[in-house]
Amino acid sequence: MNRYISQRNSVPPAVMNLIIANAVVFMAMFLLVKSPEQEWSIYGRFALHPMQSPLFEWWQPLTYMFMHGGFSHLFFNMFALYMFGRTLEWELGTKRFLIYYFVCGIGAALMQMLVGQIDIARMNPDSLAYMQYMVTPTVGASGAVFGLLLAFGLLHPNAVIMLLIPPIPIKAKWFVVIYGAIELFFGVSGRMDSVAHFAHLGGMFWGWLLLLWWRRRRQIY
User: Which element (helix H / strand E) includes 171?
Assistant: First the structure.
């Protein structure tokens, strides 16, 4: 029994390696990039861009997940991955956890690109806003992390989460509902437009579809 408890409190391999991979990419960018031109070139190749952008590449819906816009962006994503990913990986298994994580992350990218298509259709191709949109990157593991939040809330709805700001306890199911509603509000209203709200919702949506598929096939655990 003690061995089982110790195992569940440790960091499973997929979560550990995802955190390491994200940290290595961030440190490489911080230590090796010596000029804004180099940074622009790397973000241009590996961050997510609209499909009409000359910077778009087919691998970006995967690589954007390992790039972050700053230390706080990286820290909070990896903190959430650590807090919720450990339980989910022990329950789903490492292989299924990785499938879930990448489905959510790539699904988030697809949702972001779909919403981007709608925004682009409303723009004048000769406008400054259009040209800026074409070169504005989306980065971060947030879409995949929001998928993890959804999975934790569905599989452990009555588990109590202690928020950091404000420091109050809340049940996981209400945390997911409130967070999802906030993201939908900001996404539809256009407020905080520097945040990819629909990517977050896309990660949750694709995670929900995958969990539903597994549940119907009785393959959740």
Answer: strand 169-171
